[in-house]
Amino acid sequence: MEYVPEVLLTGTVYNNRCEAVEGAVVRVIAVASLTKKDLGYVMTNQFGEFAIVVEKNPQINYQFDIYEPVLTS
Fold first, then answer.
1. Which of 9, 13, 14, 54 has its CA 20 to 30 A from that of 2?
2. CB–CB of 49/56 below 8 Å?
3. Which residues, in sequence order, are bridge partners of residue 12?
4. pLDDT tens readout for residues 50-62
5. Rounded to an integer, what distance in angstroms lies between the CA atom of residue 67 and that of residue 25?
6. Strand partners, 36
7. Are 66 and 20 in contact (CB under 8 A)?
8. What pTM, to 2 d.p., does this model score?
9. What's the rounded Cα separation, in Å, for the pair 62 and 34?
10. Residue 21 pLDDT
């Protein structure tokens, strides 16, 4: 089995009032040259924080798309 180095990417999502956003959805996309690969989604915790482990590769950039929390009744 080949060893693939990994790195933990973390962040915090804030609204326009600089308040942490709980339950926001963060879409993670790997961008390399002319290709994009959807790696999946994570949700923020009660402090607006998220974390995801990805491949450590200098040829890959990571894009985050942030979506508002889904409201449930």
1. 9
2. no
3. 49
4. 999 999 999 999 9
5. 5
6. 31
7. no
8. 0.84
9. 13
10. 96
